[in-house]
Amino acid sequence: MEKKPLTIIIAAGVLLLVLIVLLIYMFSGGSKTGGEEPGFFESLFPQGGVRPGGALPTPPEKSDQGEMATGTPEAERAELKKEGKLIQVIKKPVVSPAISQDASRILFFDKQTGNAESVAIDGTNAQKISSTTILGILEALWREPKKDNYVLSYVESDSLKRFIGKTSTSGVIFLPSGITSSQWSPDGNQLAYLLPLAGKTNLVVTDENAKSPKILYSTPIPDFILFWASKNKILLVSRPSGVAPGILFGFDTQTRRADALVADSNGLTILPSPKGTSLLFAKTNSSGKDLKLFVSGIDGKNQKELQYPTLPEKCAFAADNVTFFCAVPKNIGSFAVLPDDWYMGNEFFNDTFYKISATSTVMQEILPTGSFDAINLFTSPDRKYLFFQDKQDGTVWRLVL
C-alpha cells in the first residue's frame, strides 16, 4: 500500500514533463520557416518537402526585405528580366502571334479589337497591318514563308466561319462552311482543309486563293486535325482526348495513300518539324494520365521517350530541324484527364523551359519554373530568341537563348 503514493507521484512527474515539452514545442514555432532550423516533427521526417500524391512544395516566399532569396527560380527570372533577357513584348491579349519573314517583327491579331497588328521584336513600334477588323477570332493561320496571307477562323452568330485574308488588301475569300481543320502547304502555294460531306471526312486541296478544289482523300473517320508536314506528306491526327484512343495517319499526296503511323494511343497530340523529317507526339494511358512525350521520325518509327513530358503544342522546333524547345509543366499531377482538362481551361500549367536535341534527347533547362503556361512557341531564324504566349493572359514574351 505504501508504493501507491510513490507510483502516483512518478506518474504525475512524467505527465508534467510531457506537458513542458509540448509547451516548449508550441511556443518555439513547431516547424521551420524561412531560414530557421528544422522543427520537431520535420526532424523526424527529414525527407519532407513533397506532399502525398506528388504535389510540389509551396514556392519560397520573399524575405523580410521584400527580395527573393538568391538561387530560387523567382530570383533567376527576376535577374533575367533585369538583364533584359526576358521581356514582355506584347502586353495585351492577342491571337496567333508569329514572326515576320524578315524576323524583325511579331505579327498578331488583337483579341479585343480584331485588328491585325505588328510590333518590333523588342515590343516597340506597334503598327496596324490590315484594315480588316473581325471580332470573335479563334485562330489565324499565317501563310509561310511570307506571312502575307492568313486563314482566319472566327465565331459569328454562334457559327464558326473561315476566310482567307491578305495584309495588303481589305478583300477576303470565304471558305466553305463546315470545315473542321485547315493548313497551308509548306511553300504557301496551296491550302488544304477537311470538309465533312455525305458521312465522310474529305481532304480537299486548293490553290492559295481557294480555287480549283480537289478531293484527294475520303474517310469515314470523323474529326481529324490537319498538318501539312512536307511537300508530299499530310498528317491527319484524330482530335485528342485522354479517355479515347487516337490514331495518326500519314497521307502521301503523290500516291494518294494513307498509312497509320501511330495507333490506339489515348490523348494523342503531335507536332511535325518544319522540314517534315521529325515528329513530336504525346500520349496518355486509358485514364488520361501518365503523360509521355516522344520524338521519332515523321513515320512514327525510331521512337525515343523524353525525360520530362509535356504536350507537343507547348514545343517549337528551331530552323535547324534538330533542336527544339519545350515548356514542361511541373504540376501535371494536378490534372484529372489530359489533355482534356487543359484544353477546357480547368487549370493552368506551371512551366519550366528546356532546350532539347532530337538526336540525343538531352534536355537543358533554360528558364526555371514560373507562373507561365506557354503556348504558340516559336524561335527567331538565328535561334537567338524564343517567343511564347502565356495562355493565362494572352500576352507574348521573348527569352534570349
UniProtKB/TrEMBL annotation:
Membrane-spanning segments: 6-27
Organism domain of life: Bacteria
SUPFAM superfamilies in the cross-refs: DPP6 N-terminal domain-like
Keywords: Membrane, Transmembrane, Transmembrane helix
Membrane is among the record's keywords: yes
Region (Disordered): 51-72
Protein name: Dipeptidylpeptidase IV N-terminal domain-containing protein
Species whose genome carries this gene: Candidatus Sungbacteria bacterium RIFCSPHIGHO2_01_FULL_47_32
Lineage summary: Bacteria, Candidatus Sungiibacteriota
